[in-house]
Sequence to fold (370 residues):
Amino acid sequence: MADGSATVAFRGNRVGAVATATERPAPTRILAPDGTVPDGSRPPLPVDELLAAFRLMLLSRRVDERASNLQRQGRLGTFSPVHGQEASVVGSARALDPVRDWVVPQYRELPAMLRHGYTLERFFLYFKGNPEGNRMPDGVKLLPYQISLATQLPHAVGLAWGLRHQGLDGVVCVYFGDGGSSEGDFHEACNLAGLRRAPVIFLLQNNGWAISTPVRKQTAAPSLASRAAGYGFPGELVDGDDFFAVYDATSRAVARARAGEGPTLIEARTYRMGPHNTADDPTRYVDPAELEVHRALDPLTRLRAFLEDSGVLQAEVEERMRTEIEQEVAGALAAAEAHPGPHPAQIFDHVYGEEPARLAAQRRALEDGL
Ligand SMILES: Cc1ncc(C[n+]2csc(CCOP(=O)(O)OP(=O)(O)O)c2C)c(N)n1
Fold:
């Protein structure tokens, strides 16, 4: 996975690690596991941006813990933690402009959604089973969660192609996993995107697992990034636990897409450190030694080490962030729990523009029975 990665100069002529051979290529890396960066390279991000990114990663991890506990208490439904993938999600999201660009999520990208204008209250509502939680706030350039694997990919390409037709300079970043990359929708979406030069970034989070299926049983390809070549656009393999490598690759993909140069596939090689979701028991199939290796590459620890060594983050600053996060999460949860909850007949809403007689009869029967 992310170990044994090649380091690259941050400002240089990077083409990324595009796979053409059958050997497993090493992902591009900028931030080493000990928090150091290659000599002379400094991330092109102001200090407040770096701190905001770190805070978002901290918030994501806290929400994971809180939501997992709430699910165990029966206060929340099945939920998929981001744990381990924070650099991959936040690093890519921070390269986007929420005013112009769109995020098309799968179901493990909460921090990207929050940065784009989604709210924690809606997150809690959604996982309490309230459809209101999956309705994006007006003016926010986000599609809803997608559970049917890879179906969001053709949607994202259509959205990107549509932006081009309207003469807009927006870019679409669509998230999916290694498992989703085996679906036909992935290949159809890539083919069309390449042909139409759609301004779309395929952000493939290779977290090592599709529930209990390890990536080595998912594909014979040495890297998933290498597939882009078959569709006529660049594919780049990056260390997905390295905030800077993901931010850098995504920034370049955004620039290409805005300039009309078409799509990019980014494989962010990371590791799912928690369960697939709260219904899963990974101790039945994850080798504890493998998990330990990845714990040592923790994306949060890595960014913290860099920020501390750079004199940007002190223990009291992080403590303050944690206190604020605690209040933010508690406030959002309280608001979601105070919500009146969905009416059962809402199950019929938004299915058809004009409700067919058969469904209207079912709606009446339900309402009569209540
Ligand atoms: C079309 C479809 N097939 C099967 C499933 C069941 N399923 C849910 S998650 C999952 C694994 C997904 O793995 P991956 O794409 O790597 O994403 P990850 O959950 O690891 O982030 C499967 C098979 C589904 N949701 N949709």
